[in-house]
């Protein structure tokens, strides 16, 4: 029986799942208390919400792009023949 050719391998799916987990962690880092009309929360300007969380989320998106473009080396060798 022939082995079916799929666009993604198991590694691609694992990398995509890791990227999604990193994005979710980045979005969770952005959460925190919100401001009301009576109280102003200065936590909205914290380093975690302004700098760290967007960078973590960006790393997650880059990981997903790499996961989509990733092609195993043994598959590259088979295409040359």
Architecture blueprint of SSEs:
Elements: H1 10-30, H2 47-69, H3 73-80
Describe the structure in your own words.
By secondary structure, the protein is mostly helical. It has one domain. The chain contains three helices and no strands. Helix 1 runs antiparallel to helix 2. The longest helix has 23 residues. It is rod-shaped, with a radius of gyration of 20 Å.
In a few lines, what is going on in this structure?
The chain has helices at residues 10-30, 47-69, 73-80. By secondary structure, the protein is mainly alpha-helical.
Largest sheet: none
- Shape descriptor: rod-shaped
Q: What is the number of helical segments per DSSP (H or I, 4+ residues)?
A: 3
The radius of gyration is 20 Å
As a percent range, the share of strand residues is: under 5%
Number of beta-strand segments: 0
Give the overall pLDDT as a whole number: 86
Run of helices and strands: HHH
- The N- to C-terminal Cα distance equals 21 Å
Structural class category:
mainly alpha
Number of domains: 1
Low-confidence segments, ≥5 residues, pLDDT <50? none
Helicity level: 55-70%
Task: List its salient traits.
single chain, 81 residues
């Amino acid at each position: 029986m022939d082995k079916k050719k799929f666009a993604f391998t198991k590694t691609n799916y694992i990398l995509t799942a890791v990227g999604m987990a990193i994005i979710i962690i980045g979005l969770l880092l952005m959460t925190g208390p919100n401001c009301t009309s009576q109280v102003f929360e200065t936590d909205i300007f914290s380093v975690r919400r302004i700098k760290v969380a967007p960078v973590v989320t960006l790393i997650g998106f880059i990981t997903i792009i790499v996961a989509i473009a990733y092609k195993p080396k043994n598959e590259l060798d088979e295409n040359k023949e």
